[in-house]
Amino acid sequence: MNKEISWENQSYQGEFILLGVADRPHLEMLLFALVLVCYMMTLLGNSTIIVVSRLDPGLHTPMYFFLSNLSFLDICFTTSLGPHMLVTFWRNSKTISYGACVAELYISLALGSIECILLAVMAYDRYAAICHPLHYTTIMSHSLCFTMAAISWISGFSNSLVHTVMILRLPLCGRNQVDHFFCELPAFLQLACVDTSLNEVVMFSTSVLFLLVPVSLITVSYGYIAAAVLRIHSAEGRKRAFNTCSSHLMVVWLFYGTAIFNYFQPLSISSRDRRKMISLFYTFVTTMLNPLIYTLRNKEVHKALHRLMKKN
Known about the structure:
The chain has 312 residues and is an all-alpha fold.
């Protein structure tokens, strides 16, 4: 009896079971195929952007510096979750060690937070390029670009560290079934056997900082960009600029919209299945779309690819 009481008062330190959709094998195989395709396309598209931006001198500009950062970030983000998830889909035993679960939570939350800030930085870069073209090189100096990128990375890892430390202090009382595909913050909080109000308040506050504030700044930036585009005399130029801006905004709103839905809903009333699917969407689908929308449709990148192929 004493052993049982002792066990109940301790935080669980063994293996976790990732429930996912293990009770629906057909859906599991469908999701395996979806995640695999998205992951492979993310690796291919983002690796291409990094290599081309690095090798072609014509792409050594602030815009492609930030795009290379985003591409590297997306590769890391999907790799932190994708391979283990794909293996788990095939295994009968859906277990993950305590240490691996905490590491997965910390790394994926950090990289997701960095992406939130980096997308806002990229929107500012586009605002400076379109609304202040004569002063663009002065505004977006090398030192400012590196500083903004560094702030994105440092703030993301700092945010994740706060949540991870708070999570590690929560007693789980032997609960080891994570109702998700991977160890994500909202799913992990539901394992705690004590009141998690403080954690939820901190999660809400940081979500405002990393989700609502950046998406608001992006929307304002693109409002100024739209006003500048309307002043373009060429109808073809206006159409091309609007197509570019609308595709950027579509990807931005898909990423932020799904993340906002997941992190702003109270844990007690949210549908767990819906949370799981939305997490897959902003983790794999939007990271696959980023290179397609931001760069691979760009004529500058096409020309750079042709130049590199001719050299080879």
